[in-house]
């Protein structure tokens, strides 16, 4: 009996010793800045809006895009090497105006127009196109898509996933239908629409007048071919495949987040929507392929200057903002929470994760002719 007791005790000791206690690191993001990188803005480039890094012509390039086209900047030299803008007339002109634009490896660009034309360009030349049936959205007076970062991805050869936006500016009461389900749709250049999702937002009815209720941020892990999305005002995350929700769960955090509806202001026939400064907000999800980590960015504090200015277009850069970068492993277990602060006049741009590292814009851009990134190294958190 004594021998059995010691065997059980020994097994229990080794089992406890082999299990690491997981301690979440909390600190300042500046501790992880290891380098910087400069991109040069030429005289014909009106603005820079960086999204991602792609492979093209044996090189690596930052993509700066808007709804009119895109530019490619060499990651080594910082100089612009390619530019494309949609022609207004002629055979390459779109039917309607572009509502979703994304650039992929090989200098491939895919665009969806307001009249349902999906077109693929390669090096600025038309390769394929298909007409998408707009009957899927017949209840919406204004069709919108979300094409920021991984909200518009290539899931396989010539098949693409796009995230929709059901916010209806012309509605009388509810501007977001909280029963809406077609958040994700896939199409190809043979059949048009291939599938669409059908699941409800996790947000309550009180968000129906809030523009934030329709905003989604997504991340694609190309190593494991997994795709995750979350609403800007929720801790819930969804794994999506073939337009279906494979599983959903809540992301953990040491910091407790408060999500509130946005502010809706109606003055006669004039309407305006703005973020609630007291609400936290999911800003982005990215996958760090160098370290196989997920990074979730949450806006956690807003200090408004000139709060009497309600127009969102005029509020750009008027707030002091604090962000938390939450670092997760591949199982979405929390590893770290890193804080960064942007003062009034400074704007948090896009976080870009690539094999070269994690890039965010430097808070203070000292020159109008240059755009400087900080390079972040999170290898400390690799198991």
How many helices? The count is 1
Our count of domains comes out at 1
The unreliable regions are: 1-19
Query: Beta-sheet strand percentage?
Result: over 45%
How would you characterize this protein structure?
- The chain is mainly beta.
- The chain has one domain: TolB, C-terminal domain (Neuraminidase).
- It contains 1 helix and 28 strands.
- A 5-stranded mixed sheet has the order 1-25-24-23-22, with no helix packed on it. Strands 11, 12, 13, 14 and 15 form a 5-stranded antiparallel sheet that branches. Strands 2-28-27-26 form a 4-stranded antiparallel sheet, with no helix packed on it.
- Strand 16 (216-221) and strand 17 (226-231) form a beta hairpin.
- The longest helix is centred in the N-terminal third of the chain and has 17 residues, at 2-18.
Describe this protein with a few key phrases.
47% strand, disordered N terminus, 383 residues, Neuraminidase, mainly beta, five-stranded antiparallel β-sheet
Question: How is this structure best summarized?
Answer:
The protein has 383 residues and is mostly beta strands. 4% of the residues lie in helices and 47% in strands.
Could you give the topology of this structure?
Blueprint: H1 2-18, E1 25-28, E2 33-40, E3 50-56, E4 59-66, E5 69-74, E6 80-85, E7 98-104, E8 108-113, E9 117-122, E10 125-131, E11 144-146, E12 152-156, E13 159-165, E14 184-188, E15 192-196, E16 216-221, E17 226-231, E18 236-241, E19 244-250, E20 263-267, E21 270-274, E22 281-288, E23 293-304, E24 319-328, E25 334-342, E26 352-354, E27 357-361, E28 370-376
């Amino acid at each position: 009996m004594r021998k059995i007791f010691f065997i059980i005790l020994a097994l229990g000791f080794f089992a406890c010793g082999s299990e690491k206690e997981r301690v979440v690191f909390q600190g300042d993001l500046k501790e992880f800045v290891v380098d910087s990188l400069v991109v040069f803005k030429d005289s014909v480039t009106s603005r820079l809006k960086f999204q991602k890094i792609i492979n093209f012509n044996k090189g690596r390039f930052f993509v700066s895009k808007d709804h009119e086209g895109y530019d490619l900047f060499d990651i080594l030299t910082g100089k612009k090497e390619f530019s494309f803008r949609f022609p207004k007339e002629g055979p390459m002109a779109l039917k309607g105006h572009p509502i979703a634009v994304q650039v992929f490896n090989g200098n491939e660009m895919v665009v969806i127009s307001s009249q349902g034309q999906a077109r693929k360009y390669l090096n600025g030349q038309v390769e394929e196109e298909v007409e998408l049936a707009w009957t899927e959205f017949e209840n919406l007076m204004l069709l919108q898509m979300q094409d920021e970062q991984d909200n518009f991805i290539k899931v396989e050869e010539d098949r693409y996933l796009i995230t929709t936006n059901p916010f209806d500016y012309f509605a009388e009461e509810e501007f977001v239908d909280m029963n809406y389900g077609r958040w994700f749709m896939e199409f190809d250049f043979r059949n048009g629409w291939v599938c669409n999702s059908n699941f409800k937002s996790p947000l309550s009815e009180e968000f129906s007048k809030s523009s934030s209720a329709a905003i989604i941020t997504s991340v694609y892990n190309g190593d494991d071919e997994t795709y995750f999305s979350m609403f800007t005002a929720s801790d819930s995350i969804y794994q999506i495949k073939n337009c279906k929700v494979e599983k959903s769960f809540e992301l953990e955090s040491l910091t407790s987040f408060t999500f509130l509806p946005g502010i809706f202001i109606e003055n006669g026939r004039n309407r305006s929507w703005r973020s609630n400064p007291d609400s936290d907000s999911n800003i982005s999800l990215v996958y760090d392929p160098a370290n196989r980590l997920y990074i979730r960015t949450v806006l956690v504090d807003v200090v408004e200057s000139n709060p009497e200015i309600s127009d969102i277009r005029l509020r750009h850069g008027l707030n002091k903002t604090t962000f938390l970068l939450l670092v997760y492993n591949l199982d979405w277990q929390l590893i770290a929470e890193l804080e960064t602060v942007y003062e009034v006049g400074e704007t948090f741009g896009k976080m870009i994760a690539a094999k070269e590292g994690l890039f965010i814009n430097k808070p203070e851009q000292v020159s109008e002719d240059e755009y400087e990134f900080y390079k972040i190294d999170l290898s400390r958190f690799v198991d």
